[in-house]
Each structure stands twice: as structure tokens, then as C-alpha cells.
Amino acid sequence: MSSDITATAAWQKLRDHHAALADRHLREFFAADPERGRELTVSVADLRIDYSKHRVTRETLDLLVELAEAAGVTARRDEMFAGAHINTSEDRAVGHVALRLPAGESMTIDGADAGAEVHEVLRRMGEFTDSVRSGEWRGATGARITTVVNIGIGGSDLGPVMVHQALRHYADAGIDARFVSNIDPADLTAKLAGLDPAATLFVISSKTFSTLETLTNATAARRWIVAALGEDAVAKHFVAVSTNAERVAAFGIDTANMFGFWDWVGGRYSVDSAIGLSVMAVVGKERFAEFLAGMHAVDRHFATAPLHGNAPVLLALLGVWYSNFFGAQSRAVLPYSNDLARFPAYLQQLTMESNGKSVRADGSPVTTSTGEIFWGEPGTNGQHAFYQLLHQGTRLIPADFLGFARPTDDLPTRDGTGSMHDILMSNLFAQTKVLAFGKTAEEIAAEGTAPELVPHKVMPGNRPTTTILAPQLTPSVVGQLIALYEHQVFVEGAIWGIDSFDQWGVELGKQQALALEPLLTSPEEPASQGDSSTDALIHWYRDNR
Ligand code: F6P
């Protein structure tokens, strides 16, 4: 049996501590501990993380660290860095930290030098993307490649999409990237609109090279190229990223134009592998190296910093604190950066596919809730949509606010004297302040508010937030942010005792879709699916398609 974390003394102490502290307000915490705003912060690489606006005292933090110790987080972390098969249900190592090792550093995974293998692939990726960026690699007609279309889904899409948008400013070779993922043909159709086949390169990204959406879209893209340029053009317009050379070859892509990775890289942990090829084509291998270096800096911190000052550990412990002791259901991620618009969606796969599990690694049922629900939108847009509920709703929703000292773009304010970016950041600071401290009925009444309106205007506060700041949204900082959340997910999974690296729960739906598809169009009356709802839905679709 995996040990049950809820049966430990550390858990029990936290439960008692929670009972004593749950009704206390952040106003009291700040009044009693005036230095906490400066001291309850942790820095890692370029990130400054303020966790003082959390419903914790210094004692809470000690107890949470005790919990991490009771869960054996350090040992588990060390096993990951040592290349052990900690993905037990798939009997695989979890080696994404090897993807960002500096050249010359090694990590042995399954008897091989993963660091050396990673750098060999990076070298090939660099050579290839250099040739695309310089115009040496040309399409079948001799035209330069101006658009790279990545076809992939899940981890083979969300990371590249997010990083590409985040690094918009670093696109310096006249190459744009588009991303196609959905089996809904609207996706491919919309993304191909306006593209010149002669100047388009497809990157087919799939770890397994068996994913229905990706192979179907890739086949449609192939038809699009062949219709415009002929069969012989395929070699110049298609490359693949995969762990499965046989399937790549069977699809008709020369494995000389395939960039590999390994089964020890989970899909949702793969943006820093060859899956990042489209990003590298747009920003260049040097910027991609900075991105990897940013991740590595956080890896070193995670591997070596004491638990009390270890940023991903602290943030994971706070996640556990709210999920398991306050009963919070979700966490909002609110980037005050339009270029990070896809960061919450990226985190949804990272966190929810990793930790959305009901059994522990040995198959025994968990005894507490797992898997925070991540969601969010960039500020300030979210302020005009769902923040009402954050401020005055009945639910407790801890939120991560992300912001930058320097903008990627800036424009003057209305009167021309200020900066729009300063307004953006003042909103971030205002929101976390109001969420924490609110405004009391007395304060509102003292402003002369009509008594019947006072209850509507009370801002309860005591809503916890983390503020993550960095100087600028650079490639390194994007890498740092990703690694920060990857390791949070790891620590939460270690505390819950689950395997954060498998995803069995996505399989049955895929199988059923394959089985149902012929029934939607077959001339015969479809066989009953065993439930009246599914049968009725299929009939409705057949009648109306
Ligand atoms: O269905 C879930 C999943 O297996 C993800 O874990 C993965 O990122 C995605 O599908 C895509 O898989 P692949 O890269 O093998 O096409």
C-alpha cells in the first residue's frame, strides 16, 4: 500500500491548526506580523514570489513543510533527478529535467546518457531551424518558408502554442507559426486560410504518432500540399517530431526529417523537447537555449533549496492547504500579460492530466481530494468578467497573479504622460490588495453609503493570492514559469501519493469514439449502445446531419 498521507501525524496537526486558524483574517495576520509582506517571499532565478497574502502563519508554513517531509517529497524528487522509474503504472522514468541540462552535464536514464542524447537532438534541431530561418531550406518550388504549421494536440500543442505567443517579440526571421490541434475541421481550415502552400512547412508533432486528431489533420494537410505542389513536394514540406520512427516512416515522412524524443518525456512535459521545434524555428536556437536555461535554473533550485525556501514546494504546499483543509476546488491563474493568454490553458493539461487521479500509485483509493482545477484569463480582461465572484462570491478561490516590471509593448496613456503598462500593473497590485484586505461595512458606511447598500458593497477580503513577478517576459522567464509549475505539480502528486505521470483516464473516451464513429453514418440501424441517452443522441445526429 502507498502510505496514506491523511493518516500521518503531520496531517492531523494541520487539521487541528486549520480549525484554529480558518476564521482568522489576513488583516490580522498582517497586523500581527508586519514584516510578512517582505519576508514571506521567495526568489528563484528571475522570479520574485510573494506568498504573504496567504491564510497562513509562520507556524502553518512549518507544519506544511513537516507534511512534505512526512510524504517523502525530498526522496521522491531525488529519485526523479536520478532517473528512477517513478511513473510506476507505465514503468517509465520521468526525465523532463534532462531536457534542459546544460551541454556536458549528464543524467543516466535507463542506462543511457540522457544529457548527451538531448544535446544531439538539440544540435539537429538547431541545424534544421537555422536552415529554415536562413532560407537555405526551401519548399519544393524554391520558395522560402514563411509559415510553420505545427499539427499536434495536448502536450504536442499547448506548450508550443503558449510559448510561441509568449515570445512573440523574439520572432526575428520572418517566420510565423500556426497551430492546428482539433479534429474539428474548422481548425485546420481556418489556420490554412491565406497560406501559400509553397511557403508552408508542416511539423507533425506526436509523441506516439498514433493520435487520431494529429494523424487526421496531418493527412488533410498532406492532401493540401499534394493538391497544390504534387506528391514529390511532401519531403520538403513535412517534418515530424515523435518517439516512434516506424509510424513516422509509415506516414510517409522521411525519418531523416524526424526529430526524436524519449518515452521518459511525458506529453505535457515536452515543450522543451523536439516538440518545441516550431518555436525554435520562429525564435531561433539561441533563444530556445535561453528558454531551456531558465527551466534548468528552477530545476537546480528545486533540487537543492531547503524545503522552507523552495519555491515550487511552498506553492504546492499552499495548493494542498487550500484543496485539502479549506476545501477549495480550483485555482485561478491570472497573467497580467496578454502574451501569456494561453498560460492557463497550458497549465490545465500540466496540472489536471497529471494530478486528476483517484487512486494512489499502488492502486489504493486516495482518502482526500486531489488535482486542483486550474483556470484563468489574462488581467485586466478577467476583472470585467469573473472577478466579481472572486471578490464577493461564496467560494474560496486562491489565485496566482503574474506580472512583469517591463512591458513587451508599451503605449502612452490618454493624456500622453504615462504608460499603459503601469496601469496594467497597478491593476494587478490593486486586485491582490483588495482580495486580501477587502473593505468592511464600517468603512463603507463611513463614506456615507446608504445603509441598505452597505451589505452589497462589503468586500470580505481574506481571499488568498500568490504574486509572481519578473523583470520581463523573456525566453528564460517563460522557461522558469513552466518549471515552477511542473515542480509544484510534482510535489502535490508526491504528497497525495499518486502517479502524476500517467493519464489512463483519457483512453476509454478515445476507444468509444472510434467504436461510435461508423454508427453515425452506417446505412443500417445502429446497434443500441446500452443506454437510452447515447442511443437518442446518435439517432438525432443521423437524422440531422
Ligand atoms: O490524450 C491525452 C494525450 O495522450 C496527452 O497526454 C498527450 O499530450 C496528447 O494525448 C497527445 O499525444 P501524442 O503526442 O502522442 O500525439
What does the model show?
The protein has helices at residues 9-21, 26-32, 36-39, 58-70, 73-81, 114-134, 158-166, 185-192, 212-229, 234-237, 245-251, 277-283, 285-304, 311-325, 343-355, 387-392, 420-437, 441-446, 454-457, 475-496, 507-516, 532-544, and strands at 41-44, 47-50, 108-109, 112-113, 147-151, 176-180, 200-205, 238-242, 258-260, 330-335, 373-375, 399-404, 465-470. The strands form three sheets. A six-stranded mixed sheet has the order 1-2-13-12-10-11, with helices on both faces. The chain has a five-stranded parallel sheet with strand order 6-5-7-8-9, sandwiched between helices. By secondary structure, the protein is α/β, with parallel strands linked by helices. It starts with 8 loop residues before the first helix and ends with a helix. The protein has 22 helices and 13 strands. It folds into three domains: 5-71 and 305-406 and 418-496, Rossmann fold (3-Layer(aba) Sandwich); 96-288, Glucose-6-phosphate isomerase like protein, domain 1 (Rossmann fold); 504-543. 6-O-phosphono-beta-D-fructofuranose (F6P) binds next to loops.
CATH topology-level name of the largest domain: Rossmann fold
**Major sheet summary line:** 6 strands, mixed
How would the global form be characterised? globular
Proportion of strand residues: 5-15%
At CATH level 2, the architecture of the largest domain is: 3-Layer(aba) Sandwich
Number of helices in the DSSP assignment: 22
Arithmetic mean of pLDDT: 97
Strand order of the largest sheet: 1-2-13-12-10-11
Rg from C-alpha positions? 25 Å
Number of strands: 13
**How many domains, as an integer?**
3
The level-1 CATH class of the largest domain: Alpha Beta
Low-confidence stretches: none
